[in-house]
Amino acid sequence: MINGLLVVLLLGAGVAGYLVFFGSSGSAQTTAARTAQAANRDVSEVVTAAGTVQSSFSAEASFGTSGTVTEVDVKVGDVVAKGQQLAKLDSTAAQLQVDVAQNNLDTAYAKGTGTTALWLAYQQAELALRQAKDALAATTLTAPGDGTVTSVTGSVGQKVGTGATGGFVVVTDLKNLVVTANVSETDVSKLKNDQTATVTVNAMAATPIRAKVTQVALTPTTANNVVQYGVTLALSEPPAGLRPGQSAGVEVTVAQASNVLAVPAAAVQTVNGASSVQTIANGAETRQTVEIGVRGDQYVEIRSGLTAGQEVVLPPVTTSTGTNNRQQQQGRQIPGGTGGRNGGGFTGTGR
User: Fold this and answer.
1) Class of 22-44+258-329 per CATH?
2) Sign of torsion, CA 133 136 138 144?
3) What percent of the chain has pLDDT over 70?
4) Burial annotation 287-313 (CB, 10 A radius, 16+ → b, else e)
5) Cα 101 from Cα 214, distance rounded (Å)
6) Residue 156 has what DSSP assignment?
7) Quick one: CA torsion of 96, 100, 101, 107, rounded to 10 degrees?
């Protein structure tokens, strides 16, 4: 009887030990506290946004009058200069109107302008000639600016009208590219012209591009109750192959400090404008008020309240145990695991 009871107790203790050590289903968890040392480093605060590569200049060129196309002088890919001829309409009728108007003006001039009636006749003839010349000029399509022809929608023999939508030729500046992005209403107040930025084009992720802010919109756009403000950034040295329409990530540096005392951002708690950190020394924890400066995503500048080398407590990390305990028994590190408070602090680099 007694022996049987001992057997049951021993079995129960063994099962309990197994469940504690190995986990009943591989889902047991343990909480590991961490610390980091206050140390000098560079700290920067950045505003991030999604953006799109765009041309600094793109314009649709359309005829100013109706008629039949007699010439198309460019093709897609041609580089053109402002004012260069792109296409022409049949100008026979327009030229005839100029000739008639010029003859009428000559006649009015010959009659003199000594009376009010003669003066008015001369003025009307002069106005008619100016209008006829404008109509003739409208039969020639010219480039609205320097750039590359990116679209030609017409051809010789086509009839065009003044009410046609879209440009007959589109000219785009492919050399001076910019990035436009939308930032949240909480971040827009931090942005201003000439701030430095880094642009990473998704198609060229290995080649970050230096940029600077050139324009911040004064009025917002709202979509799905989200308020955002447009920002334009000029690219310092656009890489070869960059094209309008490509998507990019934008990081604008809005504040930075070099070689300043800092701690991981996770260690700082700010309540009602007052910031503090939890420090630990000789096993005892103390809450200390600190004055902060630049607040980055990973590190925060400490202007007062701490000295270099002090240990600050970071939020604990909960890790899964169970089958992982068996991995530890075999000499393998728990994936994502962290050391204890006396294990040497917080590693890695960041802003």
Assistant:
1) mainly beta
2) negative
3) 80
4) eeebebbbbbebbbbbeebbeeebbbb
5) 49
6) T
7) 160
91 vs 169: CA distance, rounded Å:
19
Length of the chain: 351
- Residue where the block lists tokens 């000439």: 194
pLDDT band at 166 (very low <50, low <70, confident <90, very high): confident
* Whether 264 contacts 296, CB under 8 Å: no
Largest CA distance in the chain: 144
The pair of structure tokens assigned to 305 is 């309240």
CB count in 10 Å sphere of residue 168: 20
Q: CA 57 to CA 146: how far, in whole Å?
A: 9
CB atoms within 10 A of CB 232: 18
Query: Which residue type occupies 6?
Result: L
According to DSSP, the residues that pair with 141 across neighbouring strands are 87
Residue carrying structure tokens 């000789």: 282
Q: What is the DSSP string of 171-213?
A: EE-SSSEEEEEEEETTTGGG--TT-EEEEEEGGGTTS-EEEEE
Return the structure tokens found at 19.
Answer: 């469940």
259 in the Ramachandran plot: left (φ > 0), alpha (ψ -120 to 50) or beta?
left
Judged on CB neighbours under 10 Å (0-12, 13-18, 19+), 35 is: buried
The pLDDT score that the predictor gives to residue 275 is 96
- List the structure tokens of 120: 């008015």
pLDDT in the model for residue 333? 36
Please give the Cα distance from 263 to 41 (Å, whole number).
Answer: 9
Residue 34, classed as helix, strand or coil, is strand
Q: Of 57, 82, 64, which is closest to residue 168 (Cα–Cα)?
A: 64
Record the tokens describing residue 73, joined without a space: 């002088």
- pLDDT digit string (tens) for 79-107? 999 999 999 999 999 999 999 999 999 99
Angular region, 112: left φ>0, alpha ψ -120 to 50, beta rest: left
